[in-house]
Design a protein that fits this description.
The complex is a heterodimer. Chain A is of the alpha/beta class. Chain A has 24 helices and 20 strands. In chain A, a hairpin with a 7-residue loop joins strand 18 and strand 19. By secondary structure, chain B is an alpha+beta fold. Chain B is 45% helix and 12% strand. Chain B has helices spanning 2-6, 16-26, 34-44, 48-57, 77-81, 84-95, 137-150; strands at 69-74, 108-113, 125-127, 130-132. Chain B has a 4-stranded mixed sheet with strand order 2-1-3-4, with helices on one face. Classes of the chains: A alpha/beta, B alpha+beta. At the A-B interface, helix 1, strand 12, strand 16 and helix 17 of A face helix 2, helix 4 and helix 5 of B.
């Protein structure tokens, strides 16, 4: 039965939290009620990208891209569009130019290049047949029937794919190490412990196209000679876990997973391991300890997991996004893959765009794209047309890129030179109202809490750095504190045992490097230029503006505001707790922060 | 009760995290009691100290009794920049507890999470396994009241 219309409802985590499950249910009911259920098909898909606009409903054949669809809009879509064939204009994307009907016309999508995310938001992730229809498992069949493991590895090497977990280690080379390592059995592990604040691409891939990750692991297993794999996913991602479980079950049923796959004599199976809330478990050796059921503590390297991994056996560990790239390289060839991106950084990178940008969400762009294109063309610029201040890239291991980096091509090397790392691909956009010192303090506090405590530089060093930063944000900082931060930061970077400690000082060092004057303002003038640090700001009422309505006095929780009715009011800063309630209720904007 | 849960797993150390998750899920107060830990240790064949040490390393396991629903408020910079703080304050006020504490009626435990991975709809929180995004203090109160009515 061919349907005349397909209705795609985004079931990515962002849209689900905005109520897309209810929207889908309502659509199904409504379509039944209008007796359209034979000719219209409703499909729940993975993340389509623009989380900001959820819940999203996409109606084909027109490709009408409806956003922020509420329950009441469902009736409109069914009655107007599906029954009468009239596109519902008021639910389409709008911008200065015009009403945009289809996805392709929306600037958010125009500059993207979807390879890894090609299926996300297009197919039903809980239906293996849709994946197969999108050339799914074809790469696996080709590899098993026509290629030797060495040919597969050579192809990965030629493609110049680099680890998408953040460090950018050449994937083909890693596979070769594991292939040539001595010891049996060998294991293949998928790192889905995406703990970086501000990153959510692994989650979207696992939720939107879980089979692509399985297929990548299968091809890797064939190449390195492994029969057993593990996927490690954060417990915070219940939806990803559920969809992976469904995908694994279906793959077993169809003979893509298990014994004697596709009758080629190759066997491989995967177990799912669920984390339990520890950021350090994203570090490969800690992750292995966690899979073994122990505390997730890293150990020193070498020996690397490639020779001594799970239970001391050779183990291949790649990130979710890395595996999701594999099948495309096999199907289209390494030259095709290298045609995207730059010489040193081939292919695309998925970034998670969040913070003070108009269009938040998940984007996939060719590497080498500039930050300006990401923030202004795809992201639509800063919320309320504010001023771009910086982009925090790579989470707590990364650093910030500033206005002067807007035209910098985003590659592993260029970002590293700027003092940050591409990392897992979190991009938090900051505007003028963000205090860089406070941001650095936040990230350091995060690393300090998440430090496993095994090595002293990380356990104690981050603690001391945090104390200094707390002093600075509270207005008790001294000039030598800034130099001390740099000195300590360098030590922690050099002496820590694992990647967590080695990169923990990055946000601090990078903000000191680019926003030193902001640190100095906190230390010398005892002022917070962004007006964020509570200890360094004062709330005042402008006498000339105040109309004496008394609303502020009413909401003040500590009775710090006094004044006669219709006369200017005053805030007693001795009592004021700086909650900001008065500023929110003032009808004439007479309350200011100094 | 715990015995039934244990019997679903092979008694191997590598299954410890899954076992801890499963036992905690079936526990009436969302946590691991010392009896639970003793039984798990016996079953897996390691010392209770090792089980305790492993459980307390991970933030998702609690050896302190928790409420029926665990609320995790996201405090990532992405949420923080878009008003995450006011969400946490609204929850503290509405529930009358601080982070890490449980309400007197045993319904809620308030926790924070470093990132829930739904930064596109910041500010966000999770209650048990359900994620809520684009929150405002008013919406938080509504959600809490819904749970209260639902028990």
């Amino acid at each position: 039965m061919i349907q005349r219309a397909h209705v795609l409802v985004c079931m990515g985590a962002g849209c689900v939290s905005a109520g897309s499950e209810l929207v889908k249910k309502r659509l199904e009911e409504k379509i039944k009620e209008k007796e359209l259920d034979v000719e219209v098909r409703i499909i729940g898909t993975g993340c389509m990208g623009p989380c900001e606009r959820g819940p999203i409903v996409l109606v084909y054949p027109e490709g009408a891209f409806y956003q922020k669809v509420g329950l009441s809009d469902v009736d409109l879509i069914v009655e107007e569009h599906l029954l009468k064939g009239r596109v519902v204009k008021e639910l389409l994307a709008k911008d200065e130019a015009a009403v945009r009907v289809s996805k392709e016309e929306i600037p958010f999508f125009a500059k993207q290049e979807k390879i890894v995310l090609a299926n996300c938001g297009v197919i039903d992730p809980e239906n293996i047949e849709e994946y197969i229809a999108a050339n799914g498992y074809e790469a696996l069949a080709r590899v098993l029937e026509r290629m030797t493991p060495d040919e597969v590895i050579s192809m990965m090497e030629k493609s110049n794919l680099r680890g998408r977990g953040g460090a950018g280690f050449p994937t083909g080379l890693k596979w070769r190490f594991v292939r040539s390592a001595k010891g049996e059995p060998k294991y293949v592990v998928c790192n889905g412990d995406e703990g970086d604040p501000g990153a959510f691409m692994d989650r979207a891939i696992l939720e939107g196209d879980p089979h692509a990750v399985l297929e990548g692991m299968l091809i890797a297993a064939y190449a390195v000679g492994s029969k057993q794999g593990y996927i490690y996913v954060r417990a915070e991602y219940p939806l990803a876990i559920k969809r992976l479980q469904i995908a694994m079950e279906q793959a077993r049923k169809y003979g893509f997973l298990g014994k004697n796959i596709l009758d080629t004599g190759f066997s491989f199976d995967v177990e799912l391991r669920i984390g339990a809330g520890a950021f350090v478990c994203g570090e490969e050796t800690a992750l292995l300890a966690s899979i073994e059921g122990r505390r997730g503590m890293p150990r020193s390297k070498p020996p690397f997991p490639a020779t001594h991994g799970l239970w001391g056996k050779p183990t291949l560990i790649n990130n979710v996004e890395t595996y999701a790239n594999v099948r495309h390289i096999i199907l289209n060839g390494p030259e095709w893959f290298r045609s995207f991106g730059t010489d040193s950084s081939s292919g695309t990178k998925v970034f998670a765009l969040s913070g003070k940008v108009k269009n938040t969400g998940l984007i996939e762009v060719p590497m080498g794209i500039t930050l300006r294109e990401v923030v202004f063309d795809i992201g639509g610029g800063i919320i309320n047309d504010g001023k771009f201040k910086a982009a925090q890239i790579g989470g707590p291991s990364g650093g910030c890129l500033t206005e002067r980096h807007l035209d910098l091509p985003l590659t592993y090397e260029s970002v590293k030179e700027a003092g940050a790392i591409v990392g897992s691909g979190g991009l938090i956009i900051l505007d003028e109202n963000t205090c860089m010192v406070e941001l650095a303090r936040y990230f350091l506090e995060f690393c300090q809490l998440e430090s496993c405590g095994k090595c002293i530089p990380c356990r104690v060093g981050t603690k001391r750095m945090l104390e200094i930063l707390e002093r600075i944000t509270q207005g008790a900082g001294k000039m030598e504190d800034i130099n001390e931060l740099e000195r300590l930061g360098n030590w922690v970077q050099q002496a820590s045992l694992c990647g967590l400690g080695q990169t923990a000082p990055n946000p601090v060092l990078s903000t000191v490097r680019y926003f030193r004057e902001e640190y100095e303002a906190h230390v010398i003038q005892k002022k917070c230029p962004a007006k964020v640090c509570v200890s360094l700001i004062k709330y005042l009422i402008l006498v000339e503006k105040c109309i004496g309505c008394g609303r502020c006095a009413k909401v003040c929780p500590v009775k710090a505001i006094s004044g006669a009715i219709r006369k200017p009011h005053f805030i007693n800063s001795e009592i004021c707790v700086k909650c900001g309630e008065c500023k929110k209720v003032c009808p004439v904007n007479a309350v200011i922060i100094d | 009760m715990v015995k039934d849960v244990l019997s679903k797993f092979e008694p191997r150390r590598e299954n410890l995290l899954d076992i801890l998750h499963a036992v905690q899920e079936t526990s009436p107060n969302n946590s691991l009691s010392s009896e639970d830990i003793e039984m798990i240790a016996k079953y897996v064949g390691i010392t209770p100290a090792e089980v305790y040490g492993t459980a307390t390393f991970y933030t998702m396991f609690s050896v302190k009794p928790r409420g029926k629903h665990v609320i995790r408020v996201c405090v990532s910079p992405a949420c923080h920049l878009l008003g995450g703080e006011s969400i946490l304050e609204a929850l503290k006020e509405e529930l009358g507890v601080d982070v890490g504490d449980t309400t007197k009626d045993g319904l809620f435990t308030l926790e924070i999470s470093s990132c829930l991975g739904i930064c596109g709809v910041a500010p966000a929180m999770m209650i048990d396994e359900i994620a809520y995004g684009n929150l405002t203090p008013a919406r938080v109160r509504d959600i809490i009241n819904e749970y209260r009515r639902g028990g």
